[in-house]
Amino acid sequence: MEPKLLLRKQDHPFDHPDSRFMFKKPLVSTPAALENFGAEVIHRCLLDLQRLAVEHHGLDYGQAFDTHAVEPLWFIEDGDVVTALLPSDY
Question: pLDDT tens digits for 26-79?
Fold first, then answer.
């Protein structure tokens, strides 16, 4: 059974200057993120982030999806990529 993921409220308000990231860069995932969530779930979460970024004209660089089954799934836009990872990968 797939873990239920819920996007955590971001640290900055949507109208803050740091909420400028669109999550449109190439996606990379850590092995642990792929093992715990799978490529399909990670891709769906990225699509959700991209949709929200368009809706709000950008998001904070770090986003987290919480779940009760395993560690949260983090997405960080930094440099040339968006990275999907677990907190323990950081």
Answer: 999 999 999 999 999 999 999 999 999 999 999 999 999 999 877 999 999 998
Residue 23 contacts residue 77 (beta carbons within 8 Å): yes
pLDDT at 66: 96
| Bridge partner list, 64 | 74
Three-class DSSP labels, the chain: CCCCCEECCCCCCCCCCCCCECCCCCEEECHHHHHHHHHHHHHHHHHHHHHHHHHHCCECCEEEEECCCCCCEEEEEECCEEEEECHHHC
CA distance linking residue 73 with residue 10, whole number of Å: 14
